[in-house]
Structure formats: C-alpha cells, structure tokens
Amino acid sequence: SDAQITGSDNLCTTATYSVPAVGTSYNWTITQGANLVTLSGNGTKNLTLTKIGSTSGQVTMQVTFGNGICGSGSTTITKTIWVGVPAAWSVSVIGSCESPYWLFKSNVPNQVTSWSYTINGVTNVVYGSEFEISPGDFMSPGQTKILTYQAQNGCGSSGTGAQRGQAHPEH
Length: 171
What we know:
By secondary structure, the chain is mainly β. The protein is about 0% helix and about 50% strand.
C-alpha cells in the first residue's frame, strides 16, 4: 500500500495525524516515545497527539488498518516525528577548535529547521537541518574566538552551545 500518515513532522503542543479512509478498523499505537505524548482518536482514521510536559524527543506512531473483507488482510504504516524544541544531546558539532571547518548537524530527523549563530557580535540565521562554516571566515590567522549557536524549529530554540575556534596561521 502507498498509504501514508499525514501530519506535521514537528509537534509543539497538539496535532492531528490521518490516514486515508480505506479501512473499517484503525488501531493506533505509539511504538517509541510513549512517555512524550498522549493519544486520542484510536479506532478512527484521525489520531490527535498532545505533548506531555516540557521534554523533547522522537515519537513513532503506528497505525494498522483493514477493511474486514475476507483475504484483504491489514496494512501497518508508521511515521516518526520530533516533539518539542531541539534537544542539546541530539545535535553535533563536528570539528575541533583547529579544524578548517565545523559541521553543525541534527542527529535526529525532523528536529531542526534552522540554526542561529553569533560571532563577533553578529547573529546569522541558516535554514536547514545542518550547515558548515570555516573559522577562517570570521577571524584572522592565529586568532581564537567563541561562536555561540542554537538549533531551532517551529516550537522554539535549543539551549545555547559554544564552539571555540582558532584560525590557522598562514604559512
């Protein structure tokens, strides 16, 4: 079946998820992150998820539906979403203080939609789940500075992280 669960990839408070009206029975379950959401609407083609508390994380929902006709069987599909703001544990900065570049990336799908970073008193915004920057782009050779950053999505921002950088001396 080409059926998919439709609905937002990022849940802030409450959202509804749906499958096509192709069955006579629908059984929704949360297979990952059940401690992060409550569900209502089981038994129908529409599921409403509501975030619990202020915790963030991944949630995988699953629905099994069938039409009760002999031999037609049932279909099970899943969708994984991110609940809440980006979590500090789920983003990476790849590169040491002396690396020629740093890669800022989300380790979890559907979590980060943009980044803001501040260096030399100027804040920049980059859209996407990851971005790359070279320390040499914002400091002179041999200089050391601190870049602060936040991962963002439709629910808000992560805590602020910091990366110390040193531009390579020219030879």
